[in-house]
Design goal:
The complex is a heterodimer. Chain A is α/β, with parallel strands linked by helices. Helix content of chain A is 39%, strand content 15%. Chain A has 24 helices and 21 strands. In chain A, the strands form 7 sheets. Chain A has a 5-stranded mixed beta sheet with strand order 12-11-17-14-15. A 4-stranded mixed beta sheet of chain A has the order 2-1-3-4, covered by helices on one side. In chain A, helix 6 packs parallel to helix 10, helix 9 crosses helix 10 and helix 19 packs across helix 21. In chain B, helix 8 packs across helix 14. By secondary structure, chain B is an alpha/beta fold. In chain B, strand 1 and strand 2 form a beta hairpin. Chain B contains 18 helices and 17 strands. Classes of the chains: A alpha/beta, B alpha/beta. At the A-B interface, helix 17, helix 18 and helix 19 of A face helix 2 of B.
Chain lengths: 595, 583
């Protein structure tokens, strides 16, 4: 059956929470009503990445890109676009600068992106294995099983230069080789889908939008290293991804692409899902393995590395979702092709979750080495409200900041490390002049302190102490010796913590001190927060010469500490002010100032 | 095993493959500081104090958990390592109460020692010591979570060495605590009171329930006749508190010290061990040779093992010897036989026992059979550690004490009685007498080596005039499962039991490694204490319980015969299935 048109409705978690499900069913109903059901195929796809503008609906072959669609728009979409062939102008994406309606290829958000990992997200119905197969799905597995030896696969991976996307960027082929080299009847393949960095959701999107890609990759690894069992460790907070993975496993098994004697060969490989309870530390590979084993999720010392002694002490290949998602396409298109994407020893692409003070937040995939400027300004559309760019934070709670001075630095493993940050899982939070860097560091420490498993002393105690010190500084109780103490504790944590969580937990604060020392010192020596964020260090005043006595601020004040008669100058009673900033936001005359 | 060579701070050492940096460093006479590591346990790698550097690597590695490789060059001490370690210690100190003066581990604390060695004069970081309640719900040990340094030793001992699972890691991050799961009291858990957690705790977070004041007060008021007994394992370990090597036999000084502390009569649990053998070996002969009762028969001298069995293997109760432990037999005899001899009533006697064990504090009230004299047969149990403190606080110069003898009524013992203190000892002593009871003569050579030593489960066969008696010995509670499972598997398969007689002790090495012994027990220390025990056996006049003249006397004068009516009244007990969790 041939269709004239395809309507792709984003089925990622973010769009689903904005009623994409209703949009999907309303479109189907409308098509039915107008009798066009046999001409138009409606597909619920994975994430398009442009989450800022979701829910997203795309119509092919016209390449019409509809944004912020509501369920009640379905009627108009069908009546106008499908029936009359006239795109619904008010729903099309308008480029903010050119103000023109844009097709997807013309949208600056997508222009600089290269989609390798996300190649199927937003194109196929993730719940339909046929659609994955139609886009070369399981061709890599077939190629591997029929034409390649395990060594060939590893050689191809080596050629590609693929490195782990979950953290430190360890060469993937080496991990596989270590496991392959150990002689053991039982080996395992594990997918780390315990995505936990605040704001990061690229793994979820891959699993929701292209689950077979990961399954295929794991089977390839199983064949390569000699494992017959795989586990996907995924946090229970990802119900949609879990459901789609489960269906994908069932469908692939039914078609003989997983299970015993895959594609008629001797190779058998099964995959099971294990749910994590949401502890961040379980993203650390040894803690993750402990959790799969049913133990408390606490890291174990390495070496021995999981590649040699992992799950139930057996050799285990463990990679994160994004790494897995690169494997099949490397096999089908070749390591050479892959290695041409990227910069220096950082090959391929990287998916970032772009958020914060940015116009186009969303998931973006760019070649390694793309300058930060391209990501922030071309793809991200710059900083809203004309504010000044201050920094981006990468690597989440393990990373650091990159300042405006380094906006042209290529984003890859090497350059990020040089700047004192890391790639991490790909969180990228943009900050503008209104962000206090002390507050940013405190936020991340709060997170790591909360998520520390408590096993090793440097992380358990050191993290808490760092947070206490930052909290003191933010409250005007900072002491000159605090900066030395931060350095001392930071060193002990980096050097003596058992796992990556503790070893990298001081990075955000150390990075902030490296690049924004003056701002931090202002908090300590002048009890002043230059960005006006640290509540205890700011005061709100009303300028008598600007106040016209409109009473708006007094009415908005939640604690009623602003007094003044109508048309008279108002005043804030500092003793009761909770520094919520409501008056500051409310005043239309610039009469309320923050100092 | 293959040896490899590596360099520790430039000194070349050769060690077996698989040796950790921590142990390899010892070969170069280098001590790497550590707080969480204990040689009894796999490296937990929590504290971060033992970090060391490996040439060619930018990372600091934990010496406890990193094995040396051939040609590896290790740096264990430099200024950066010193700074990192010192900061970590300061961080730990900032969460630990500064109450060393009143701590049970004062002068004996591994954290205190680290602080002293690193010359820490102030804690640069803000103190953060949340108030927490102690758990003194068991009669044996006290948990003081406020002092816990989260090294994990107690949990790993409880779960992996002992297989008890009373303690667990609770909470996360800096809320992490080591305590019973579900926030219940320790006496509501499967805890068997073995006290191995307290013996392994590096600080004062778990310790024996101190009853020295109660003893001192009663001795001082002098209203009762005070009688004391000393367990076999105490004599080879108490000296450690006074600077002696482990294994040094200080029985004579111990008796003297106890008299100076004011006890009217000083008896020896070894005598009661001989009595236990008379009853237990007779019981075994009855089960084995006469078919009365279940085989294998399993020993019951260890109250932690009894508690464990009642909770985890209640179906094995019929296999348990009904003979009381030596402590409780002594208690019964003191308040009946001895009381009669001196013309006193049971309630006029205050009976204290000195034990290597925290569980013995629990045993004295475990059921009504522990009141066979009509009173508590034993009034108070003090551990070796408590006794050492009492001796010190009484100003007794232990080293200078002249050896004394125990009071003869219940104080003479055979070599078989003294070896109760080591794993395999009860079995060996029982074999010595059972052989005699069956054949009417002593073994040509009384030493029975296959059941000695620190191997977790030991098996042996005794030839009693052509009949093979198969025996097994296990120590360290976690090793009991292997033995129990084999017995149960054989029973379920309808096969002959793998053994006829089984000895099980809860603590590694037996009572010499008890939870109430002086701190610092490692296999090295245990081996020395065990050597002391067998040396005491060899120098004994009588080597078999039935040859102890006072044993003969007590049966003639008071008990009649083993397994007789009076024996059952005073020397035997019963067992009850118990719930793992009390709520």
């Amino acid at each position: 059956m041939a269709y004239n048109q395809y309507i792709l409705v984003c089925g990622g978690t973010a769009c689903m929470s904005s009623k994409a499900d209703d949009i999907y069913s309303n479109i189907l109903d409308e098509l039915d009503r107008v009798g066009a059901k046999q001409d138009v195929q409606v597909v619920k796809t994975g994430c398009f990445g442009f989450c800022e503008k979701g829910p997203i609906v795309k119509v092919l072959p016209d390449e019409a890109f509809y944004v912020e669609v509501k369920p009640e728009d379905a009627k108009e979409l069908v009546a106008e676009h499908v029936v009359k062939g006239r795109p619904v102008q008010r729903l099309l994406y308008h480029d903010e600068d050119s103000k023109e309606n844009a097709k997807i290829d013309d949208i600056s958000f997508y222009q600089k992106q290269v989609r390798v990992v996300l190649r199927n997200c937003g194109f196929i119905d993730p719940e339909n294995i046929e659609e994955y197969i139609a886009r070369d799905g399981y061709a890599a597995l077939e190629k591997v099983l029929t034409e390649m030896s395990g060594d060939d696969v590893i050689a191809e991976l080596e050629k590609s230069g693929l490195r782990g996307r979950g953290g430190a960027g360890f060469p993937t082929h080496k991990k596989w080789l270590f496991t392959k080299q150990v002689e053991d009847e039982q080996k395992y393949v594990v997918c780390n889908a315990d995505e936990g960095d605040p704001g990061a959701y690229m793994d979820r999107s891959v699993l929701e939008g292209d689950p077979h890609n990961v399954l295929e990759a794991m089977a390839i690894a199983g064949y390569t290293v000699g494992a017959t069992q795989g586990y996907i460790y995924i946090r229970a907070e990802y119900p949609l991804a879990i459901r789609r993975l489960q269906k994908a496993i069932e469908d692939a098994t039914e078609l003989g692409l997983l299970g015993t004697n895959i594609l008629g060969t001797d190779f058998s490989f099964g995959i099971e899902i294990r749910l994590g309870a949401g502890a961040f530390v379980c993203g650390e590979e040894t803690a993750l393995l402990a959790s799969i084993e049913g133990e408390r999720g606490m890291p174990r010392p390495r070496p021995p590395f999981p590649a040699v002694k992992g799950l139930w002490d057996k050799p285990t290949v463990i990679n994160n979702v994004e790494t897995w998602a690169n494997i099949p396409v490397i096999i089908t298109r070749g390591g050479d092709w892959f290695s041409k994407i990227g910069n220096g020893p950082s090959k391929g692409t990287k998916v970032f979750a772009l958020t914060g003070k940015i116009r186009n937040s969303g998931l973006v995939e760019v070649p390694m080495g793309t300058p930060l400027r391209d990501i922030v300004y071309n793809i991200g559309g710059g900083i809203p409200d004309g504010k000044a760019f201050k920094a981006v934070q990468t690597g989440g709670p393990s990373g650091g900041v990159i300042t405006a001075d380094y906006i042209d630095v290529p984003i890859d493993f090497e350059h990020l490390q040089e700047l004192g940050s890391i790639m991490g899982s790909g969180g990228m939070i943009v900050m503008d002049e209104d962000d206090c860097m002390l507050d940013v560091a405190k936020f991340y420490l709060e997170f790591t302190v909360e998520e520390s498993c408590g096993k090793c002393a440097p992380c358990r105690v050191g993290g808490r102490k760092l947070h206490t010190i930052l909290d003191d500084i933010s409250k005007g109780k900072g002491k000159p010796e605090h900066l030395d103490q931060i350095a001392e504790i930071g060193l002990a944590m980096q050097r003596a913590s058992l796992c990556g969580l503790g070893q990298t937990a001081p990075n955000p604060v150390l990075s902030v001190i490296r690049y924004f020392r003056e701002e931090i010192e202002a908090h300590i020596t002048e009890q002043h927060c230059p960005a006006g964020v640290c509540k205890d260090l700011v005061q709100y005043f009303i300028l008598p010469d600007k106040c016209i006595g409109c009473t708006l601020c007094a009415r908005r004040c939640p604690v009623n500490v602003i007094s003044g008669e109508r048309k008279q100058v108002h005043e804030i009673d500092q003793s009761g002010c909770i520094k919520c900033g409501e008056c500051f936001e409310a005043c239309k005359f610039g009469a309320v100032v923050r100092r | 095993m293959k040896n490899i060579s590596c360099e520790i701070n430039g000194i070349e050492v050769s060690v077996p493959e698989g040796t950790s940096i921590f142990h390899a460093a010892k070969e170069a006479d280098v001590k790497i500081p550590a707080l969480c590591y204990h040689p009894d346990l796999p490296a937990w790698a929590a504290c971060g104090i033992c970090v060391s550097k490996i040439e060619g690597s930018s990372k600091m590695m934990r010496a406890c958990a990193t094995t040396v490789q051939d040609g590896m060059k290790v740096i264990t001490h430099d200024s950066e390592l010193h700074q990192v370690r010192k900061t970590v210690i300061e961080l730990i100190l900032s969460t630990h109460p500064n109450s060393c003066l009143t701590c049970p581990r004062n002068q004996n604390c591994e954290l205190q020692r680290l602080a002293a060695e690193f010359g820490i004069r102030e804690i640069p970081f803000e103190m953060n010591v949340p108030e927490m309640e102690k758990d003194d719900s068991t009669p044996s040990i006290v948990l003081d979570p406020e002092k816990c340094v989260k090294c994990g030793r107690c949990v790993n001992v409880c779960q992996h060495m002992q297989n008890v699972w009373a303690l667990e890691f609770i909470g996360r991050g800096d809320d992490t605590q080591m305590k019973p799961a579900g926030d219940i009291a320790l006496n509501e858990t499967p805890c068997i009171k073995c006290g191995q957690c307290s013996a392994h705790c590096p600080v004062g977070a778990i310790y024996e329930k101190d009853q020295t004041r109660e003893v001192i007060r009663t001795l001082r008021n002098g209203k009762q006749t005070s009688v004391v007994q000393v367990a076999p394992a105490v004599r080879v370990a108490v000296g450690e508190a006074f600077g002696y090597e482990p294994g040094e036999i200080s029985t004579g000084k111990l008796y003297a010290a106890l008299r100076r502390l004011g006890f009217d009569a000083v008896f020896d649990t070894n005598f009661a061990a001989d009595l236990t053998i008379m009853e237990e070996a007779s019981e075994f002969v009855q089960r084995f040779a006469k078919g009365k009762g279940k085989i294998p028969m399993i020993t019951t001298c260890c109250p932690s093992w009894v508690d464990y069995m009642e909770k985890y293997y209640p179906e094995m109760i019929p296999n348990f010897s009904t003979a009381k432990s030596p402590q409780m037999m002594m208690g019964a005899m003191v308040k009946s036989y001895y009381a009669e001899q001196i013309g006193k009533k049971a309630e006029e006697i205050f009976h204290v026992s000195i034990m290597p064990c925290t569980s013995k504090k629990y045993e004295i009230t475990r059921d009504e059979y522990m009141y066979s004299s009509g009173q508590k047969d034993v009034d108070v149990v003090l551990t070796t550690r408590e006794l050492a403190r009492m001796i010190k606080s009484a100003g007794i110069d232990f080293a200078k004490l002249e050896d004394e003898k125990a009071d003869p009524a219940l104080g003479i013992y055979s070599g078989a009685g003294t070896i109760f203190g080591a794993t395999g000892g009860v079995m060996e002593a029982a074999v010595r007498s059972a052989y005699n009871f069956v054949t009417g003569k002593n073994m040509a050579r009384v030493e029975f080596e296959p059941v000695r030593g620190l191997e977790g489960v030991k098996e042996a066969v005794v030839d009693i005039e052509g009949t093979d008696v198969r025996v097994a010995v296990a120590h360290q509670m976690g090793n009991a499962a292997e033995v129990m499972n084999r017995i149960k598997a054989a029973e379920e398969a309808g096969e002959e039991p793998p053994w006829h007689f089984v000895e099980i002790m809860a603590c590694r090495g037996g009572c010499i490694g008890g939870g109430g012994q002086p701190y610092g027990a490692t296999d090295e220390v245990r081996t020395k204490r065990i050597a002391g025990i067998y040396a005491d056996d060899e120098q004994s006049v009588a080597r078999c319980s039935h040859d102890n003249p006072q044993i003969k006397a007590i049966y003639e004068k008071f008990l009649g015969e083993p397994l007789g009516e009076k024996s059952h009244q005073y020397l035997h007990t019963h067992y009850t299935a118990r719930k793992l969790y009390q709520r």
